[in-house]
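Hi P.,

Sorry for the delay on this. The queue was packed all week, but I finally got your sequence through. Input first:
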Amino acid sequence: MINGMRNIKLTIEYDGTCYNGWQSQENGRAIQDEIENAIFKLTGEKIRVTGASRTDAGVHACGQVCNFFTSSSIPADKFSFALNTLLPGDIVIKKSEEVSGDFHARFSAKGKKYRYVIYNSPHPSALLRSRSWHVFYKLDIEAMKEAATYLIGTHDFTCFMAQGSNVKSTVRTIWEMSIEKEKEIVQIEVSGNGFLYNMVRIIVGTLIEIGAGKIRPEQIDDIMKKCDRKLAGRTAPPQGLYLVEVYY
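Then the structure:
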């Protein structure tokens, strides 16, 4: 507690289809705004929530995290129930808890886990059109798995970063990566200590080109060493991406 203010941590699930991303902005609907508006209705306090990840327009989350300070006496675990009655149905608070005053949803994070969903079938899915990337041609899953082994570890991931990004270092560590296919669904999961802007989506786009036979798996190593975005694959569309978990 700082100056009588409690620090509340929220774990959030949302369908990002109808939003311009997490972060509040002048033009467009943001998930952050919806949560802040709900907190205002509940407590009467105009506060800013701090999110762990600024997910883009159309990106989803199973485990986004944010925190905010409040002078409200509402029990910490009851915030989730109360806020869910005030939020639209495509945003749900899965858990609310009180944390120490020095907890920061973004800067306290040790790493993140993402999932990317591909619908691999000749015909698209009406039900999954906003929650997966439809890839109609056959994919060589084993080649994609082989390529993924080159990505695990600590590397300079410049080639998998969107142009125009401004970061102090482009070195990141990928802890684990898996690629699994069940019927038409291909799921790529990746966890690491941090990710550059659009890094996961560019990695997925590159893996798809490997699965299509346009790039050989072993070329991944050379692409990373040359640090050239133009050598990697396209940026996969946002609707297949999910923020699964933030590690603290």
